[in-house]
Every structure is written in structure tokens, then in C-alpha cells.
């Protein structure tokens, strides 16, 4: 990128950067007393350095004028150093400067000329953030690698948990389902469910036996449950076992899983499943799903599609639920 | 069509199993037996998973009322039994306080285990019906059934007074930690309510 124009730019206008350090070597001023560097990139901005030489040297540091500098101005903490090649080699260092840099007027550093001839300007950025106009608002960092460590850590943790489950690493609890046995970890189960947590706290049988009997789940559904807990669950597995997972989430107090199941069951209500969903919603106190089913039946008039089953449903269903259905009918009924 | 009929059968199968009066009664019984075993510190037959499942099933299928009454009654009767055993505790102030505190610790441990077994009831049925949560139920039983009961109340006040006097004589002033019976009693009473602590610790010497 070559922005420098005419006499302002020379062959020695390039600023080299490494890590958070920018360095500009100026061989000669030429006929002018003002020089501006080529732009250099650090963080998300293109920067310029400029020097003006009279009795002293004035060094300015500023971001490329434009939208970015206006909307996301850099808030920088940095220090400058000017060194003359000499001989003898001399240099002078600025104090640490911390300020918002929008234009070339925002910052200037005056240095006494210590020598003649070639000299070098170093800018060492200690921190670089996106400044905000509001002083109380916290600014966000721009180093592209910041935040990466959390992502890598999350991913790596998931990988470890997954291995703990699939390879039964130090597994310390046996789960007996209706048709098979699974191995898991007390600590992981206890961390995700208050019920499992209590199970191993008191001096009751499980603490010693390290066996859990889950007599209301088949091994596939229970694998899906462990899949959720250990983060290995696949979408189709979730889809297939949604209802069992919902029952388990309610029973073991796993709120996130319960919410996922409710959202998912809301997505595919049909006349074939609406009564079943309504019953489930009532049983597990899922208000959103219940409202969805009632709306489907009465506001959209799908009650006529399930005429055959509705008698059987009312025969078995709880009075409380029947009453709610009746109230829903009244609320949408518009007598002439 | 057949798939839909299967639904009706499956969705309401619980009415024949978990909703069956015999099963309901059996589940209630299992929980109340567990309350008894927990107070007796006989844990060999108490399987948390099984009891939790029974209590959960009762509440899920709208039998919370029955479970709550059964648990409340079982706890009350256990606390009554504890009062009975305390009534025969040694006559000396110190050994009475020691016995009282040990029984209190046994009671709180039992309440904590029971509360976890009926956790689903505590989380859904209790707030929905405005009942007293199990932990508070346990505190209330101890407060009204034990420390304020005619048989215990006066002995407690007297024992605390004696113990305080003895400490003053010995020059031992409320060293916290094991062995400090008055501190233990204060802690217990504070847990029962700020007013309860006041009621006992500030009480004038009983002479009437």
C-alpha cells in the first residue's frame, strides 16, 4: 500500500513492525523539514508517524483518517524512543503515554535534537483498545488473539469430557438402565444435576455402592442424556430421544436440557402429536409449549382434526388441564 | 391411526401404574419408612435413587398433597420420639445440653437428607401451594416441639444459666470451639430464629 505522496514520501518511508513494536528509520530529511511515514498496520488500524524538524523534533502518531478512526478510535498505551545512529549513539525515551488517538492533533512529542544524520523512531504499544466516547464504558481489546484462549480451552475441555465418557476414564459410577449398563463420573453428574449431587452427599446406599438404577430409561435414551451432560450429543440423537430427555431433565433438575426440549417440541406440533405434546406440557409445567398446543388446537381450529382422539383424551386427562382447555375455547369463541 | 391409539395408551399408562392407589400408598409408605430409618441412622436400606423416584412420581402425578402430609407427619412423630429420649437424659445441666446438641445435629442431618429425597416436592408443589419448605418445617418442629415444649424449655433455660455461672466461676469466658456448650446452644437457637435466641438467652432466672 503506498499512500505517501510526492516529497513527503521517500524510499525510507517504510515503517517495519514486529509484534507490538513499530520502527521507522529515517536516513535523511531531504529538502523538507517535514516527513510522514507510509501507513503501517497494528491492531485493527493503519497508523502514520510524522516528524517535523525545526529546533526540536516533533513526533506525531495518529491513525489513518477515516471512518474507522472516527467510529472506533484507538485508545493506546505506548511509549516512543528516538535514537540517533551517531556516533556516538544517543537516544531519548518518552514516558508511557495513554490516550485516545483520533487525529494528528491529538498527540505530539517534542524531542531535543541530540545529533544529526540518521535516526530511528520506535513506537512500542503496551496496550491497544477500541476507545469509547463514554468514559465509564469499558473498551474492548483489539489484539486478534485475545479471546482465542477461551475458545481453545472450551473446545479442549469438551474433547476431554468426551474422552472421559467414551473411554470411561476413571469412571466411578455404574448406571443400570432397563436394558443395559453405562459408566459415568459422580463428579460430572453431580455438577450438572442437584439430584445427583444429593445422591452422593448423604451416607445413603449410593455413596457406598456407586450404582445408580435408572429404571425408567432405556440404554439409548440414557446415552443421549449422558451425551448432553458430557457435550457429545448429536442432533439426530437429541431429536430421537427428545421426550425421554425432557422427562429426565425434569426429574433430575437439568434446566438447560429441559428448555432445549421445550423449544424443540414447539417447532413441530402437528395434529398427529398435539394432544401428546399438550399432555407433556401439562405434566412438566411447560407454559410455552402448552400455550402453543392450545393455540394450535383452538385458535387455528385444528381441534377438528383430532376429533376422534379428543374423547379418549378428555376421559383420561386431568381435570385441571381440561379446565384450562375449556377456558382457552371460551377466550377464542366469538358468539354471534 | 394405530400410531395415535398407541399414543393414548402410552401417555396414560401411568394411570394404571404410578397413578394406581396401591402404588401411591406404597410410594408414600416407602418415603415415610425412609424418614424413620434416616432418623434412626439406619441407612442400609435407604436407596436415594429409588426414594427420589417414588417421591418424584407422586408429585409429578399430582399426589403432592399426600406426600407432603405423610412426610410432615413422619417427621413430627420422629421429633416427638426425640423429645421423649431427651426427657430421660441425665439430670445434670452439662450432660443435658450435650445430649440436646447431639440430638439437634442428628435432626438437622436427617432433615437435610429428607429434603433431598423430596427435592421435587420442595421445588414445585411447595411454592405452588404456599406450603412450608421441608427445611423450615424441620426447624419449626424443633422449635415448637422441642425447645419450647414444656418438658425441655425450663431445663434448657436452667442448664444454660448454670453453665454460664460455672464458666464465670472458672474464669473461662466463652471460648469458641468444641466443648463450649453455651455457644452451641446459642448457634442452635439463632438458627431457629432471632426471637427464639432472645427468648432463651435473655430470660430471667426461672424461679416461679
UniProtKB/TrEMBL annotation, chain A:
Report the SMART domains cross-referenced here: BTB
Question: Where do the TM regions start and end?
Answer: none
Q: Which InterPro entries match?
A: AtSIBP1-like, BTB/POZ_dom, SKP1/BTB/POZ_sf
**Domain BTB as annotated: residue spans:** 171-230
Q: List the pathway annotation.
A: Protein modification; protein ubiquitination
Q: Which PANTHER family would you find in this protein's record?
A: OS08G0103600 PROTEIN, OS08G0495500 PROTEIN-RELATED
Query: What is the protein named?
Result: BTB domain-containing protein
- Record the organism: Lolium multiflorum
Automatic annotation (TrEMBL), chain B:
Protein's GO biological process: ubiquitin-dependent protein catabolic process
PANTHER family for the chain? CULLIN
Q: According to the lineage, what is the superkingdom? A: Eukaryota
Q: What is this protein called?
A: Cullin N-terminal domain-containing protein
A Pfam short name: Cullin
| Residue ranges of every copy of the Cullin N-terminal domain listed in the record | 31-195
Please spell out the taxonomic lineage of the organism that makes this protein.
Eukaryota, Viridiplantae, Streptophyta, Embryophyta, Tracheophyta
GO MF annotations in UniProt: ubiquitin protein ligase binding
InterPro entries reported in the protein's UniProt record: Cullin, Cullin_N, Cullin_repeat-like_dom_sf
The UniProt entry's sequence similarity note says:
Belongs to the cullin family.
Amino acid at each position: 500500500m503506498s499512500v505517501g505522496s510526492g516529497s513527503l514520501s521517500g524510499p525510507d518511508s517504510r515503517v517495519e513492525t514486529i509484534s507490538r513494536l513499530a520502527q521507522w528509520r529515517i536516513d535523511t530529511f531531504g529538502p523538507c523539514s517535514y516527513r510522514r511515514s507510509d501507513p503501517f498496520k497494528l491492531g485493527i488500524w493503519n497508523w502514520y508517524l510524522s516528524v517535523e524538524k525545526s529546533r526540536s523534533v516533533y513526533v506525531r502518531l495518529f491513525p489513518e483518517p477515516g471512518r474507522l478512526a472516527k467510529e472506533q478510535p484507538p485508545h493506546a498505551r505506548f511509549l516512543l524512543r528516538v535514537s540517533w545512529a551517531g556516533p556516538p549513539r544517543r537516544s531519548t525515551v518518552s514516558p508511557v503515554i495513554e490516550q485516545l488517538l483520533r487525529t494528528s492533533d491529538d498527540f505530539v512529542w517534542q524531542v531535543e535534537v541530540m545529533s544529526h544524520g540518521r535516526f530511528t523512531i520506535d513506537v512500542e504499544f503496551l496496550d491497544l483498545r477500541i476507545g469509547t466516547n463514554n468514559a465509564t464504558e469499558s473498551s474492548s481489546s483489539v489484539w486478534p488473539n485475545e479471546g482465542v484462549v477461551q475458545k481453545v480451552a472450551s473446545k479442549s475441555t469438551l474433547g476431554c469430557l468426551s474422552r472421559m465418557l467414551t473411554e470411561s476414564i476413571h469412571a466411578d459410577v455404574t448406571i443400570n438402565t432397563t436394558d443395559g449398563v453405562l459408566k459415568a463420573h459422580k463428579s460430572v453428574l453431580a455438577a450438572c444435576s442437584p439430584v445427583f449431587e444429593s445422591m452422593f452427599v448423604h451416607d445413603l446406599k449410593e455413596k457406598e455402592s456407586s450404582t445408580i438404577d435408572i429404571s425408567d430409561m432405556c440404554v439409548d435414551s440414557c446415552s443421549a442424556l449422558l451425551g448432553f451432560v458430557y457435550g457429545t450429543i448429536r442432533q439426530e440423537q437429541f431429536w430421537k430421544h427428545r421426550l425421554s430427555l425432557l422427562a429426565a431433565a425434569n426429574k433430575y433438575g437439568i434446566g438447560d436440557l429441559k428448555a432445549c426440549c421445550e423449544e424443540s417440541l414447539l417447532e413441530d406440533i402437528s395434529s398427529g402429536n398435539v394432544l401428546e405434546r399438550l399432555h407433556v406440557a401439562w405434566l412438566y409445567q411447560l407454559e410455552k409449549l402448552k400455550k402453543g398446543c392450545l393455540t394450535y388446537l383452538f385458535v387455528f381450529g385444528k381441534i377438528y382434526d383430532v376429533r376422534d382422539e379428543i374423547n379418549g383424551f378428555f376421559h383420561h386427562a386431568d381435570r385441571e388441564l381440561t379446565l384450562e382447555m375449556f377456558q382457552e375455547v371460551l377466550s377464542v369463541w366469538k358468539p354471534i | 391411526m394405530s400410531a395415535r391409539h398407541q399414543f393414548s395408551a402410552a401417555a396414560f399408562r401411568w394411570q394404571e401404574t404410578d397413578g394406581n392407589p396401591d402404588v401411591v400408598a406404597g410410594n408414600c409408605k416407602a418415603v415415610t419408612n425412609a424418614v424413620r430409618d434416616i432418623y434412626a441412622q439406619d441407612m442400609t436400606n435407604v436407596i436415594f435413587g429409588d426414594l427420589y423416584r417414588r417421591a418424584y412420581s407422586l408429585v409429578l402425578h399430582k399426589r403432592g398433597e399426600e406426600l407432603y402430609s405423610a412426610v410432615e407427619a413422619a417427621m413430627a412423630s420422629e421429633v416427638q420420639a426425640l423429645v421423649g429420649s431427651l426427657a430421660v437424659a441425665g439430670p445434670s445441666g452439662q450432660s443435658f445440653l450435650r445430649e440436646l446438641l447431639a440430638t439437634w445435629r442428628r435432626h438437622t442431618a436427617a432433615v437435610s437428607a429428607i429434603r433431598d429425597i423430596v427435592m421435587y416436592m420442595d421445588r414445585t408443589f411447595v411454592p405452588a401451594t404456599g406450603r412450608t419448605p421441608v427445611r423450615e418445617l424441620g426447624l419449626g418442629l424443633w422449635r415448637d416441639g422441642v425447645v419450647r415444649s414444656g418438658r425441655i424449655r425450663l431445663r434448657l433455660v436452667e442448664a444454660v444459666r448454670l453453665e454460664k455461672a460455672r464458666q464465670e466461676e472458672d474464669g473461662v469466658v466463652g471460648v469458641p470451639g468444641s466443648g463450649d456448650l453455651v455457644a452451641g446452644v446459642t448457634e442452635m437457637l439463632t438458627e431457629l430464629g432471632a426471637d427464639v435466641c432472645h427468648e432463651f438467652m435473655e430470660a430471667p432466672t426461672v424461679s416461679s
